[in-house]
Structure formats: C-alpha cells, structure tokens
Write a structure and sequence with these properties.
Oligomer: single chain
Number of helices: 3
Radius of gyration: 15 Å
Number of domains: 1
CATH architecture: 2-Layer Sandwich
Order of helices and strands: EEEHEHEEHE
Number of strands: 7
Largest sheet: 5 strands, mixed
Helix content: 25-40%
Low-confidence stretches: 1-5
CATH superfamily: Cation efflux protein, cytoplasmic domain
Strand content: 35-45%
Mean pLDDT: 84
CATH topology: Alpha-Beta Plaits
CATH class: Alpha Beta
Structural class: alpha+beta
C-alpha cells in the first residue's frame, strides 16, 4: 500500500550510523530540479527558485508531493509553464531532471514523476 511520506526517509545505515532525509528536502529537490527547466515559470503556489527557500514543509508539498512504497519514491508535482513552450516536451524534461536529481542526491529510487500543468504564465 502506497502512503504519503510525512516524516523522514531512512537510508540504509552504513558505517557508524544512519542517514535520514526529511521528506520536505526530497520535495524541495524535486521542485528546484523542475525550476531549472526552460519553460517552467514556477511551481504551483507561486514558488520560484528565488523564493522557494522561504516555503515551509506544508507549503512545498502543495506543489511537490512525495510518496514512498517499499523504498521507492513517486513524485506528484504541479507546475506553471511559460506561454509558447511545448507542454509534452517540457514535461518530459522535467520528469527526467527530477528523477536524476533525486536519485543522484539521495540514492533513493524514483519510479514515477507525475507532472500536472496547473497553468500557463503569459509574457509580461
């Protein structure tokens, strides 16, 4: 049964102790990775790479939700895209970047990155 992660993700204990990663850290990694892609203007909730550090754990999970099932991670995220970008191509780039960022930074295995386009940002 899949459950939304609410606490910490325990990595395998190695050496002299264990390593726990706060779940909002994984969510923030996902959000920052998505924001690196051209065409992604912000996360749902108005978070950009400039202001995401001010987002608390509950706020960041409005745009990036992390689910854990038997040591595997699923990410559900909502983004706003800039007008004129190809939605399928940009979404694929987001999925690839989020997956590789989480896996390389945490060692966790990402099975799915589900992207919801919550809106389109028009040029100023």
């Amino acid at each position: 049964m899949e459950k939304e992660v609410q606490n910490n993700t325990l990595l395998k204990a190695k050496g002299i102790g264990s390593v726990k990663i706060a779940d909002d850290v994984v969510a923030k990694i996902a959000a920052l990775a998505a924001l690196e892609i051209d065409g992604v203007s912000e996360m749902a909730g108005g978070y950009t790479s400039e202001n995401i550090d001010k987002a608390g754990p509950k706020n960041i999970q409005k745009s990036s939700k992390i689910f854990l099932n038997e040591g595997k991670v699923r990410v559900d995220m909502s983004i706003l895209m800039d007008y004129s970008y190809n939605i399928p191509a940009t979404s694929k780039q987001v999925q690839d970047k989020v997956k590789s960022s989480i896996e390389s930074m945490t060692g966790l295995s990402v099975t799915d990155v589900n992207v919801r386009i919550a809106g389109i940002k028009m040029p100023d």
